[in-house]
Design a protein that fits this description.
The structure holds two protein chains of two kinds.
Chain A lengths: L1 H7 L2 H11 L10 H38 L2 H18 L10 H22 L1
Chain B lengths: L2 H13 L2 H22 L4 H17 L10 H19 L27 H15 L4 H12 L4 H7 L4 H19 L1 H7 L1
Classes of the chains: A mainly alpha, B mainly alpha.
């Protein structure tokens, strides 16, 4: 079938046709690229915003779970026991009176601030 | 693909930065818009809308692009799929199916032996008009093959068709174009 179709066409005409087909359709210069880039930028911002929302929700849920699920009572008991032990070791020293609970909370908050800050930059 | 283009593609993939993608849009917009104009039978507005959709989809899916094939052929694949999706979405609208017109007695006759700038321009217009009488697969295959220099294998990947079918579309399309553009010679041949 293909052979038959090819044979039907005059080689000279075929050459002429192929030459004509090489030319691209005429497209006038316009602001197509900027239109596309506006759309791309909008899409990019939208995706980034959605990603941020998901990320912040994940962090918020993690913090809530962390706050409610952590056995604070047990931790406090352990810290008090540890502090008593240390205080006993360094008998009569007042420097170890630092509240361990406060230190650990400050540490957790600092950690989350650093992580969220890094994420914000990305 | 030029080294700078490869660099843009790599940067667009790794950083997902729209700036690098912008370079690629500037580079390939004429080809994609031209190809879609042929597919939409010269409907400029629709072709540009589909071209915008093509580039937007390309940006979203750029991470899935594998450096094995050319970026241009990857874009043509997305453009062709956008066009098919548009037809399917508008299947109830008979005009949006781009029906194949009857190509007998089109009145187009260009190959009269004269060669000057005006004749070339007329030929160009006639070629674009003649494309309207081809089926969508023929329009696509012929444009990709002759206008955008894609190999038959690349076309078969772009159109997701066997190689033989692509060759057949090209041959049939060329035959029809020859008939439309050169009815006098055709009479002699028949």
């Amino acid at each position: 079938m293909l052979k038959m179709l090819e044979n039907k066409m005059n080689p000279e005409n075929e050459k002429w046709l192929e030459k004509q087909l090489k030319s691209e359709p005429y497209i006038a210069e316009d602001d197509f690229v900027s239109k596309v880039m506006d759309q791309v930028d909008a899409d990019y911002s939208k995706v980034r915003f959605q990603r941020k929302i998901i990320l912040f929700s994940t962090y918020a849920i993690s913090i809530v779970i962390f706050l409610f699920a952590t056995p604070w009572k047990w931790f406090t008991e352990q810290i008090i026991a540890g502090r008593t032990e240390i205080l006993n070791t360094f008998n009569n020293t007042n420097e170890m009176q630092t509240p361990f609970m406060t230190v650990s909370i400050i540490f957790i908050i600092t950690f989350f601030v650093i992580v969220l800050g890094l994420e914000q930059r990305n | 693909m030029r080294e700078t283009e490869k660099q843009w593609v790599r940067s667009a993939i790794s950083s997902k930065n729209p700036k690098y993608f912008g370079y690629l849009v500037s580079e390939y917009q004429l080809a994609i818009r031209g190809y879609l104009r042929r597919l939409t039978k010269g409907n400029d507005t629709l072709a540009d809308d589909l071209a915008q959709e093509t580039f937007l989809n390309a940006f979203r899916k750029i991470a899935t692009y594998k450096n094995t094939g050319s970026f241009k052929s990857w874009l043509f694949t997305i453009a062709y799929r956008c066009f098919l999706t548009h037809i399917r979405k508008n299947s109830t609208n008979p005009l949006m199916n781009f029906p194949t017109d009857d190509y007998e007695n089109t009145g187009i006759n260009t190959n009269d032996g004269h060669h000057d700038e005006t004749t070339d321009l007329i030929n160009k217009i006639d070629i674009e008009n003649a494309f309207k009488y081809l089926k969508k697969n023929e329009r696509s295959a012929i444009s990709l093959c002759y206008t955008y220099g894609m190999s038959h294998t690349e076309i078969s990947e772009i159109m997701d068709m066997p190689l033989g079918t692509v060759k057949s579309h090209i041959s049939r399309g060329k035959e029809k174009l020859a008939k439309i553009l050169n009815p006098v010679t055709e009479d002699v041949l028949c």
